[in-house]
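REVIEWER CHECKLIST
Item 1: Sequence provided? yes
Item 2: Single chain? yes
Item 3: Sequence as submitted:
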Amino acid sequence: VKHPDYYGWKKHLFQPPADERESILFEDFVEVYLNQLTGKPRFVEARRRKVRALLYGPYNRPGADKFRGGNGGSAWRGFKGFQLHEITPARVREMLTILQQEEASNSSLRNYKTALSQIFKYALIDGQEFPGKEFITANPVKAPGIPCYKVPPKTVTWLKPEEWKRLAEASVEPPDSCEDPLHLSILVEFFCLTGCRKSELTELPWSEVYKPTKRYPNGYIKIPANRRKNEIDLIVKLSPRMSNILKRQERLYGREDPVFRGKNGAAYGDLTYRKRLDNAVVDA
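Item 4: Structure as written out by the authors:
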């Protein structure tokens, strides 16, 4: 008669119980994974941010902005300290459930799944040898029961001329509130005339504004690749109105960077700019 523990011992003869197995720490393997990433620097940095969020959870990492987390961070504390084989489908479901309860968007949930899945794909297929690799037999994100999150397609809408004119009018500050009541209205108009991103204009230096030439009678703006999301230089041909706006800025503030300035001549702060522009959108 076999001892009652015989079959349990035989089962774990070549595969020790989970609490006795040892493999590489998740954070150590993450560093290996991040070091092999290639591609455009902006895309690589975006992937790094998503992967690092898996270590601590949203807004729990050291130095994170606690205000963005609303409640000072997430109840999900990340996978830091876990061994790679300890990240099971049950723990993945637990992560997604907590984040969903904290009203994370479907897009964010899908980003967490994608980042974690890419790490395990590298471990299973492309990764180098590491301690405990034999315990990683499947991608836990691909296991049955892991929910899928559909993200609706983005819709692109265009402002009509009368709409952006109303927005520019609603952006005018009260006359006695600041030195230049038209500062945001001018910026909004320049946004609509160029189609540039916020950071491309609020951080625009005079060194990127060029004088008129035979090809560009009113001058042009050249935004270098290192200030653009797609990392491709952008040349914007100036119209007479755009040229007049730049001459106005030079007349008011000289050729001191940046070209566009906020309240009382200061550079635009991100939060102040967004709040004021949000109010202007409502008023328009």
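Item 5: Key structural point noted by reviewer: The two ends are 86 Å apart (CA to CA).
Item 6: Recommendation: ____
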